[in-house]
Structures are given as structure tokens and as C-alpha cells.
Design brief:
Layout lengths: L1 H17 L5 H47 L9 H23 L4 H30 L10 H30 L8 H9 L13 E4 L6 E4 L1
Antiparallel strand pairs: 1-2
């Protein structure tokens, strides 16, 4: 989005600075068309990110169910009950994150869920490793091959990393484009071409603010 917003900003600055004699109605319509196009693109990008988070959460939930079936290999180890509880908690958190993303819930909620999910996963991963190491020294017995468990853990970790990238992307968009949700190209034009200024003029540039929440951004010129 940064590159697209910059491109539109260049066009808008060109329109404002090079078309002082242009009919106001034509200029306003042109700016409005540009803004509507950029708003649509921004909303689409945000929706795609939420959908990706939704799908990743569902993927982790499915893998947590597979892990619950796989822990039968560890039924004769002291950590069996612990591992069973960890896999259930991982699935519960993934389901909740799926619900939040599916309904485009708050970014703060997604961040909190992801932090818990990551913590539970790494705790569970460490418990699996400790259980394997203990069994190798005669503390408990592991039945059969557990290579599939390792593959599932690596896959879940990859999903979590992708989730972190997606949430980071939403957070960056909200941070960089945080501004009031309004748009008025006509007022922006009048301010840029009038001789009046306020005490804010030295510290704040002109701009057009579009959208709200994680889809809100400002084109400054």
C-alpha cells in the first residue's frame, strides 16, 4: 500500500500545483475518482489479509487435532496428560483466532490471541522435546515412530510465523495511515490555494484521509 499511496500522492500534488486555473468541479471529480480507487484497493488488501489469517488459524486448529491423535505414542510417559492439555489449548486458541479474523475483529484482539498462541505452541514444543529426551534415557516409553509429530510441529510453527507477518502488516498499516476518517478534496483544495493559515500550518502538512481502522490511510501533499 505504501507504494500505491505514494503514486496517488504524486498525482494529487501535480493536480493541485499545476492546475490552479482548472474548473473546480472537474478537479474535485478527478480527486474523488482517485480516492475511491485507492480506498477500494486498501479495503481489498485488508480483507485479503484477514482472510489469510482466518485460513491460517483453521490450519493450526486442524493440525492441533492431528497432534492430539499422535500423542497416543506418548501414553506411557509422565508428560502424556500435559501434552494432551497443551494440544487442546492450542486448538482452542486457534479456533478463537479464526472467529475474530472471520468477523474482521479488532487488531488488538488478534494480537493478544496470537501472543497466547505463540506462547502455548513453544511451551508444547519444548515439552515434546523434553519428553523425547527423557524417554531416550529410560524415563517413560514412546511407542513407534514420532517423526510425524516433528513435521506437524514445524508446520504449525510456519503457520504462526505467517500469522505474525500478517498481523504485523495490519499493525503497520494502522500506524502509518492513522488519521481521522474523512475526505474532502474541495476543502483541501481551498486550503492549499488560500492565503490563510493557522498555527498548525508549520507542523502539519495537508492531506486526504481515507477509510477507517486498519484500512485507514492519509495521502499527504
Amino acid at each position: 500500500m505504501d507504494g500505491t499511496a505514494t503514486a496517488y500522492s504524486i498525482v494529487i500534488r501535480s493536480l493541485l500545483h499545476n492546475n490552479e486555473g482548472t474548473d473546480m468541479t472537474i478537479l474535485t471529480k478527478t480527486l474523488t475518482t482517485l480516492v475511491l480507487a485507492l480506498t477500494t484497493l486498501s479495503a481489498s488488501a485488508s480483507a485479503d489479509t484477514y482472510h489469510h489469517i482466518d485460513q491460517l488459524a483453521l490450519s493450526i486448529d486442524r493440525k492441533s487435532q492431528q497432534l492430539r491423535r499422535e500423542i497416543v505414542h506418548y501414553r506411557h510417559t509422565p508428560e502424556y496428560t500435559h501434552l494432551s492439555a497443551d494440544t487442546r489449548e492450542l486448538g482452542r486458541l486457534a479456533k478463537h483466532m479464526h472467529e475474530v479474523a472471520h468477523h474482521h475483529g479488532s487488531l488488538a484482539h488478534l494480537q493478544a490471541d496470537l501472543k497466547k498462541l505463540d506462547s502455548v505452541f513453544h511451551h508444547m514444543e519444548a515439552t515434546f522435546e523434553q519428553t523425547e529426551a527423557a524417554a531416550a534415557h529410560g524415563h517413560g516409553h514412546i511407542h513407534g515412530s514420532t517423526s510425524h509429530v516433528g513435521r506437524l510441529l514445524h508446520s504449525v510453527e510456519d503457520d504462526i510465523h505467517h500469522l505474525q507477518d500478517d498481523v504485523r502488516s495490519l499493525r503497520a498499516a494502522e500506524h502509518h495511515f492513522d488519521a481521522p476518517s474523512h475526505y474532502s478534496p474541495l476543502n483541501s483544495f481551498h486550503r492549499s490555494h488560500s492565503g490563510h493559515s493557522s498555527h498548525w500550518s508549520g507542523s502539519r502538512s495537508r492531506g486526504i484521509s481515507i477509510g477507517g481502522g486498519s484500512s485507514r490511510f492519509t495521502i499527504r501533499f
